Predict the 3D structure of the following.
Amino acid sequence: MGDPASLVLGAFALIFGLVIGSFLNVVIARLPEDRSVVWPGSACPLCGTPIKPYDNVPVLAWIWLRGRCRACKGSISPLYPLIELLTGLVAWLVFRRVMPGLDQVDLPHLAAFLVAFGFCCLLIAQTYIDVRHYIIPDELSVYAIPFGLGGAVALQALGYEGAFLAVGWKQSALGALVGGGLLGAVMGLYWLIRREEGMGFGDVKLLAMIGAFLGPAPAVPFVIFVASLAGALVGLPMVLLRGRGLRAALPFGPFLALAGLVWLLTGPELVRRWFPGVGMLFEL
Ligand SMILES: [Zn+2]
């Protein structure tokens, strides 16, 4: 846990996450506008001046520029360094989860880290865009399912064994089907009873993607359960205070994303503690 080699590797994971977080900022800004995330390079959103490489260092650049563009002195949102920090922190947490000790520093566990962290990046970008624009781009949900499938196939080929990721194409495909199907069924039922859309179809596509990465059960029911619980905890006070419908108050996507992250970091342990029978059934 505390040995120097693990600390150094953890620091690498953190820095890797910060750099990827910087790229996520580009994805978050451009995807809803249908612009390429690869070209051109980053520019100031206010004056369009291309950002110099040394001003593109995650978090630090924002601090030494004091949150202002070098060219036009316009203020740059603190959300940029926050997204970078969050992505770095998540990379470090996922690293601690997948490679808790030096025994796990090998190719299968490195692959598991990349799959799990890539999954988290999809969740972070999707959450931000959903909160800001009330949409979940297909690029971050259904189009990402093949990556979940590919990751699961690679993990099986490498002989990875872990209870919190889908391993093998069967688990991944089944996860996508159960994820999309289960939430689709809940949506259909709600529509039959209330004659209104309870959730967006984007949430169904998102849970299909989550299932493709995490496998069908118990991950998918866990994610729906935790997301509903968190949504109710945050949403009910808002409804009571503002007197609006739960649906109008909150997008569900961010709670699905949060639940996906919780599953990744501690899901099997929580299932074992809350529902020992289920844990035994799935050999968690
Ligand atoms: Zn500028």
